[in-house]
């Protein structure tokens, strides 16, 4: 958030610590979004001075963001080579999906808790419409944005603070960036519909099963691509 935005929200100037934190967040979130939009790719080097200019922040904020991304496994930091987007091996990819399957299943199950709130139901339905529109226009950036919102809505519906803390640490942005398979987006949309329908019908077991099935579909597709030599 810019200083002017903070003034508008609070009527006060932000402290130096708030500025630094806000700038670091801009870089942190920006790198994740550019990774999902395929503007950054696994294995690509990240140069501090370039990132500072790109995001309009100081190099200290860039370093802080890179440390956070490294702690979450999104990038690798080397004393001699600097920072680079992490590239997952086949086994690492499958390990990420094993964790994602269980976490997404829990997310879908707990989301049923909030299904009685009309505004939340409307948000979930609206997000599905955004996913469908992005799929129809083949807009991968809009699809990634809607996918993030889909998960945020489910997290808000569940109200599990620990899940909110842990879920974003799963390395799915790296998996999505590394495995850009045409069949995945259409499959994801169909799966998201099933998850949302089960949640909206207040069926926790079906919601959990649909979420687990979704990750299994992703796993099967990626494994087939590895077998065919089409994936890294």
TrEMBL record:
GO MF annotation terms: DNA binding; DNA-binding transcription factor activity
Domain (HTH gntR-type): residue spans on this chain: 21-88
Keywords: DNA-binding, Transcription, Transcription regulation
Taxonomic superkingdom: Bacteria
InterPro entries on file: GntR_C, TF_FadR/GntR_C, Tscrpt_reg_HTH_GntR, WH-like_DNA-bd_sf, WH_DNA-bd_sf
Any Pfam family the entry gives: GntR
PANTHER family, alphabetized: GLUCONATE OPERON TRANSCRIPTIONAL REPRESSOR (PTHR43537:SF24), TRANSCRIPTIONAL REGULATOR, GNTR FAMILY (PTHR43537)
Name recorded for this polypeptide: GntR family transcriptional regulator
């Amino acid at each position: 958030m810019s200083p002017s935005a903070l003034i508008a929200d609070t009527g006060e100037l932000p402290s130096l610590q708030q500025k630094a934190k806000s700038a670091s967040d801009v870089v942190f979130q920006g790198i994740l979004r550019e990774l999902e939009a395929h503007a950054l790719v696994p294995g690509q080097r990240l140069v501090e001075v370039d990132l500072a200019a790109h995001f309009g922040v100081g190099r200290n904020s860039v370093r802080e963001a890179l440390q956070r991304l490294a702690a979450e496994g999104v990038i690798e930091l080397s004393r001699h080579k600097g920072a680079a987007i992490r590239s997952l091996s086949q086994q690492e990819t499958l390990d990420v999906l094993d964790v994602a399957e269980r976490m997404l299943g829990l997310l879908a199950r707990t989301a049923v808790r909030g299904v009685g709130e009309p505004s939340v139901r409307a948000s979930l339905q609206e997000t599905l419409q955004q996913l469908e529109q992005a799929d129809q226009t083949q807009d991968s950036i809009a699809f990634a944005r809607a996918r993030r919102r889909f998960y945020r809505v489910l997290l808000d519906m569940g109200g599990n603070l620990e899940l909110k803390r842990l879920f974003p640490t799963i390395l799915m942005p790296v998996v999505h960036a590394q495995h850009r398979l045409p069949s995945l987006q259409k499959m994801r949309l169909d799966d998201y519909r099933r998850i949302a329908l089960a949640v909206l019908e207040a069926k926790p077991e079906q919601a959990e099963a649909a979420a687990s099935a979704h990750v299994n579909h992703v796993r099967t597709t990626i494994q087939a691509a590895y077998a065919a030599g089409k994936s890294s």
